[in-house]
Amino acid sequence: MAELLGLGDGCREGASGAPALAASCLADNRLNLDVYPDGCRRFLQLFEGRQGEVLRVEFLRLSTNDRLLGTTLGILPRLKHLKSLVLKGGHTRDEFGSCQHGSLTSLPPDVGNLSCLTHLDLSFNSLSTLPGCILHLPSLRVLLVSHNSLVTLPEDFGSLSKLTFFSAMKNQLKDLPQSIGELAALQDLDLSENALEFLPEEVGNLHNCTELDLSGNRLSSIPDSLANLKSLRRLHLHSNLLVTVPASLASLPNLSRLDLQNNCLRAVPPEIQTSPFVRLRGNPLGETEPSPQAGKYESSAGGLRRLFLTSGEDSFTVTSEGCRVVLACGIHFYFPPGAASDPLRIYFRTLAPDPRWVKLRHHDVLLSRVLELQPHGLKFQQEVQIWMPYASPQTLHQREVVVRTFSGQSWSDLRTGVEQKRKSKHVAHCSVLHFSWFLVVSRLVQNECKVPTEGTLLFSSVDPSIKVTFPPGVTEETRSVKLQVVSAEEMEELTAGAGCRASPLLCLSQDSLVDFLRPVRIQLPLPPGVTGLNLDRSRLHLLHGDLEGQTWDDITSQVVLEFTHLYAVFEVTHFSWYWLWYTTKTYIGGIAKKVYERLRMYQVNFIALQRKKDPEQVLLQCVPKHKVDPVLKKLQDRYRGPEPSDMVEMFEGEQFFAAFEHGISIDMDRPDCVDGRLSFIFYSHLKNMKEIYVTSPVDRKGQAVKGQVSFYRGAVPESISEDARRRRKGPDSLWLATLPIKLPRLKPRWGENPSPLNGFSFPPLNLGNAETGYLTQANLLSIARRVGADWQSVGLHLGLTYQQIERIGEDLNKQILDMLFSWAQQNSEDPDCVSKLITAMKESGRQDIADEVETIVELGRQKYRESIRRVGLEQGSSAEDSAIAMV
């Protein structure tokens, strides 16, 4: 497919375009236009120019964030051959990276006449009621309406007699129709994260149901009829309000997982409590009712409900009793009794920091990912306590750690406590009344005070000899003043190289735009080695910098400088940066500007390592200079490669790119790939690492490929100086470093036919389900090529018996293919088979293949999975898109 998988200029030309291009655009009768911001316009143009071919389309994907959606919907009933229709929102994002729901609120009634339609995905939209035409689709087998605003389902919902998969997770369903028990073919039902308070007895009539997800609701009990679900293998009831469960659940013959975690169960029938497949963590088993007078966390935690969430969960329920919550990533919450008056569903996710909206201030260092908590803005009755782990700033001196939160308009710092749980584990603690976005940063130590009309005195806790005196009458109204200091030790090496000496750097700021009414008196230490006895006044300069540090003016002649043996004293009415320099140089402002810029930069090295067992798996990382040796030591058992690059300097929050060159390439469809280059953001205390699978477009049968990876600068933080910006423009003028990458000559392990496609014929396969993404036949062939000698271990972890493995032939090529495809055919109906394959690779020591499979699947359903399984707000792809993206 050209540009429509990509719809290009030929499609824009209408009927005059080349017939070959039309066939390419509509290959396999698929149109995947949701990846384009103007996908509906492209669809309308294609319909106008190649109507006959469009009418034969069987698989169609469109974004419901498109402004031309309404016009496009009117055409859909004419696509009589349509088998799969995906109309999903979430393709546009707000400034925080949250996916926005689509505008779809209904469907044309004639959509109910699409007799071939078997798969319908309306996730991430604005549906408040289920469109009635859906109930008239005679062949519908898969229906997804996740992330909408449905409050109820139609009474005759059970008329969808062929439905095998239904997901309505993350809606607002309060009850279910009795007719739901008439869905005789239903195998997978996902009603998680709704507002269900009870279930109808008719749910027990879903005799073919193998997986039932009711987690994240408000259920206090479940009907005994669930014991009739003899085909049920997995029952998810975690994160509800259950106080009891029927003992008969333990007798379900095929049940392999019963998740009852994070409920209110104080007693459980022995048959359930002793079952190996039951999970009960996070329940107050054996505890009495908590006292309503419970005090603080430390003294009352034993009487509170404890919730321990796994990595796949993204929400929990808080009641008026309060609770303690521990996330898989190590974040803790304490909700005191009475914090929430009614049961409240809390959603959470962690986000990679994006410098477009995570605005770090000068000299800030980011120490954590971004934590988002919802619902935003809701006020709790009592303060909720949060503990956030962060990267230990071992190399940062005279700084303090704070939790920073976003109000919707700006970031502000919270009163923060710091705890050290273990030698290498640090936690930041804060209390809040509202939920929004949170992150942990290290900043310059900040001293602040209120300045009344009577005046006051402010000292620096970093250097008590630095003080600011506010005389009486300095202001008419009380205002807040903040003081920060960069110590002279931090810049000593930089200034010595410039043939200068500099005092501590003082930053003063206030919350008023009005200058002070009377001069404010400032005392600064003289530069190191300079005293009032040996001072040459002609060499001393007082510099004033703007708040961005981009201009430094010599104001020595504009102020009256007084000297003691150790200090300089002067008066100002305007607050900003102040700096004393001692030098014979004449143009001090330019030197100060460069030194200030260097203060904010980090010395780093790039590494590019290849996995020993699979050289096509390449690990790239940008590492601060002092961490290079420990990082390489940790990786040396599994990876090898060239020496790290020469040292370069980068800003905190600076973007850079990695480009594979000279015969080596990567998958250009990766979401982090920009113009063929991998995008990174450098944060000194976070891992700037990616592991990718590289290929070579050239024939490697007879020779190795000697390529390279080069690193280039990208966007820099907005607040850096214009000089630095001028030095960093143009894609190739921003080169940083180049490291060699060598792909060895392919060994003839595939017999006479090196291609895994030659000599073998396997039926088409789609492994997985509509929400977790598919792996196709081509994906399995690609995986088989990389398994190598680990194939037997992989087979055993996939569940194959020793007898099955022994029956597989002698040729290594055929061994691996037979093993994978025999397993795949046996598990093609299992919606968790892709996850099992990933787990098997990890347990076999092939983390590289596991990571690659996850990356492949992620290309098709990244947004969807993050929002449904972790985030609650982001969108992704389902069945057909995943299959296409992975081929």
TrEMBL record:
Record-linked Gene3D superfamilies: 2.60.220.30, Death Domain, Fas, Ribonuclease Inhibitor
The keyword Plastid belongs to this UniProt entry's keyword annotation: no
One Pfam family from the record: Death
Site (Cleavage): F435, S436, F575, S576
Keyword vocabulary terms for this entry: Leucine-rich repeat, Repeat
A GO cellular-component term linked to this record: cytoplasm
Catalytic site: H434, S436, H574, S576
Transmembrane segments: none
A GO biological-process term: DNA damage response
Domain annotation ZU5: ranges: 312-444, 445-584
Source domain of life: Eukaryota
Domain Death residue range list: 776-857
Record PANTHER family: P53-INDUCED DEATH DOMAIN PROTEIN 1 (PTHR48051:SF39), PTHR48051
Protein's name in the database: P53-induced death domain protein 1
Organism: Otus sunia (Oriental scops-owl)
